[in-house]
Design goal:
Low-confidence stretches: 1-5, 13-17, 202-206
Structural class: alpha+beta
Strand content: 25-35%
Number of strands: 13
Shape: rod-shaped
C-alpha cells in the first residue's frame, strides 16, 4: 500500500513536470533596455508590444535601469514601441519571437525637437517730446501722381495736411507758420519772403 502511494505521487510529479515543460515550450520572451541617445537608462518609460498573435497589445514599464520584460508571448512577429514624455517614440518592427526563446530588443529614445518663439511684451517707447509726421516719396511715386510742378505739392500726401492761398498747411496751422529746411539748412525766411511776394502780387493784380 505504501508502495502504491509512492508510485502515485511519482506519476503526479511526472505529469506536473511534463505539463510545465509543454507550457513553457509554447511561448517566448522579449526583454531589452530603453536608453536615451547618450546611453543613459530611462526609468518609467512605457513599452508596448503588438502582434497578430496577441488578442490585444500588452504594456509594461521600465525599471530604474531602463529594463523591460514580456513573458509568455506566443511565437510570432511583433512590433515594439517605447514612449516617454519629452522624447520621440521609438518603434521597432518585424521582431520575431521563436518558440521557447528569449529575444533582446534595445530601444533608443531621442529628445523631442522643440521650437521656441520669444514674444517681447515690452510696449514700444513713444517720443512724447517730438511729434513728427512725414513720408518718404521716391521718384516713381512722384511720376505716377498728378502733382503740381512745385515740389511742395507733394506735401499733401502726408496725413493732416492741406493748402491755403500761400501753400501747404499742417493740422490746422496756416502756411505762414511752417518751417522749411533744404539739405539740413533752415530756409524758412527765404520761403516766407517768396510767399509774401506771391501774396502781394496777387493783391496788386486784383
Amino acid at each position: 500500500m505504501a508502495f502504491a502511494v509512492r508510485r502515485g505521487e511519482f506519476l503526479a510529479l511526472v505529469l506536473l513536470l511534463g505539463s510545465t515543460c509543454a507550457f513553457a515550450q509554447t511561448t517566448g520572451e522579449l526583454t531589452g533596455r530603453v536608453m536615451d541617445s547618450t546611453n543613459v537608462p530611462i526609468a518609467g518609460a512605457l513599452v508596448e508590444v503588438k502582434s497578430p498573435a496577441l488578442i490585444r497589445p500588452r504594456q509594461t514599464g521600465t525599471d530604474k535601469e531602463g529594463r523591460y520584460r514580456f513573458q509568455l508571448l506566443p511565437p510570432g512577429t511583433y512590433e515594439v514601441m517605447a514612449r516617454m514624455t519629452g522624447f520621440v517614440d521609438a518603434i521597432r518592427t518585424d521582431i520575431r519571437i521563436p518558440l521557447g526563446e528569449t529575444i533582446t530588443v534595445p530601444m533608443t529614445l531621442t529628445v523631442t525637437a522643440t521650437a521656441s518663439v520669444e514674444v517681447d511684451t515690452t510696449p514700444p517707447l513713444l517720443d512724447v517730446e517730438n511729434a513728427k509726421a512725414g513720408i518718404t516719396v521716391n521718384q516713381k511715386v512722384l511720376s505716377n501722381l498728378p502733382l503740381g510742378r512745385n515740389y511742395a505739392s507733394a506735401a499733401v500726401l502726408v496725413p493732416g495736411t492741406g493748402t491755403d492761398s500761400l501753400g501747404s498747411t499742417f493740422y490746422g496751422a496756416s502756411s505762414l507758420e511752417n518751417s522749411y529746411q533744404t539739405d539740413g539748412i533752415n530756409t524758412t525766411l527765404d520761403r516766407s519772403s517768396e510767399m509774401t511776394r506771391v501774396c502781394l502780387g496777387g493783391m496788386v493784380q486784383g
